[in-house]
Amino acid sequence: xxxxxxxxxxxxxxxxxxxxxxxxxxxxxxTYLAWYQQKPGKAPKLLIxxxxxLQSGVPSRFSGSGSGTEFTLTITYVQPEDxxxxxxxxxxxxxxxxxxxxxVDI
Amino acid sequence: EVQLxxxxxxVVQPGGSLRLSCEASGFNFNMYWMAWVRQSPEKxxxxxxxxxxxxxxxxxxxxxxxxxxxxxxxxxxxxSLQMHSLTAEDTGVYYCARDPYPPPSHCDFWGxxxxxxxxx
Lengths: 106, 120
Description:
Chain A is 0% helix and 48% strand.
């Protein structure tokens, strides 16, 4: 199985900050990476797929980049509703696997 | 509006069985692969199984092969997960999700989840 690591595990931010979350894959996965946002008690919500494609309805302050083994999720001008846990997922090969998550808190 | 509503979770003893259901609406159910994904504090998010539009292909994570069966009824827009020989490792919130592409795929819509607790 392809292992994903995320850094940091936790970060503290203020409204208006620029936030960057990293995801590293254990092997080359091309651009087969998705990012999700999850709030407490809720299901994950798809933000980004194909490493950089914005899911319909997701605000443009979210962006994704990277390929191969190194990926980044960036939130420009963090808003109060963005405080949540973020997960990356590789869909290059079976089984699809998720990173451990990054909690973004105030 | 795409909606996925899971049901069937509960408390079950080790070795027991449980059947989860998911009712889909707001999209052409028979045009999509569907999946189950679970989440626990210990293991995080874990893809469990996926099923093709016509049920001719089913994929499972290794840890549930031979114990879980994913199925669907396109006439009723419903997805199911039959679980047998449950262990504590199967405890978690189970989400029904839609796969917009053939597997492996990200999931573009998720249900609210149903909690399965395996405990004596």
